[in-house]
Amino acid sequence: MSCPLHRRHVLSLALGAAFAVIARGHARAEAARDGVDVIGNVVILAPFNLSVVRRGKVRAIMTVVANLDVGDAMLRERIAREIPLVRDSYLRCLDPYVDQLDMKSSLDVPRLTRLLQKATDKLYGEGGASVLITHATMRRV
Description:
By secondary structure, this protein is α+β, with helices and mostly antiparallel strands. Helix content is 53%, strand content 28%. The protein is built from 4 helices and 5 strands. This is Flagellar protein FliL.
């Protein structure tokens, strides 16, 4: 009598494990769709674009790709869940930079890094995550 019961338990455990793997893959796909991926300690963000507007017209598009180096696993998971908040904070902090941007000069990547780091520190505390800019360009339109 205990043998059929044991088989059912094993079968339910195997099915549960299979569903957990599928759900984890689905959650990862959702995160990638939302513009985030985590590899090791690095939270990889999707690129974001800012319009450079002069005299009411878009004159250039600035593209920035930033990643976050986060040592703490719990903070890394929190940041991955709060990506829309992070992106909103980044776009808001870069608005004044874009308004003052000289169209004839190149982007000041160290300044961009400082601005994004300040926004990150506001959200998650100082030293929690380090901003790494991997790509910053301005394309004139």
